[in-house]
Amino acid sequence: MPYTFDGTDRRILEVIQEDARISNTELADRIGLSPSPCWRRVRTLEDNGVIERYVTLVNAKAVGLPITVFATVTLEKQVESALESFEKAVTERPEVMECNLMTGEFDYCLLYTSPSPRDRG
Length: 121
Prior knowledge:
Elements: H1 7-18, H2 24-31, H3 35-47, E1 67-73, H4 80-91, E2 96-101, E3 108-114
Antiparallel strand pairs: 1-3, 2-3
Helix pairs in contact: 1-2, 2-3
């Protein structure tokens, strides 16, 4: 059963999506709660799987990966075992940022980063 949100939960999510490193005190101030109830709400969102994890977004250009590539993939067969095998292989590739199962002409759309051709050696 999906978690039931209220306006305060939504404000918490909006703020921490912009800055996951915000202190609880600053978060509480920005959404209009005192720190203790704010902390409890964040913990409840975490415990219910709404907040899955906190991540760092790396600037691809700053680490030598200035090219973003979208690639479409068509599998020979779209059976469960083929899908699972493909998805397992893709998750082992660190350059793949997203792998989306599609409907229509293609089975998957991949988003990955790549060094520019002049940097490949």
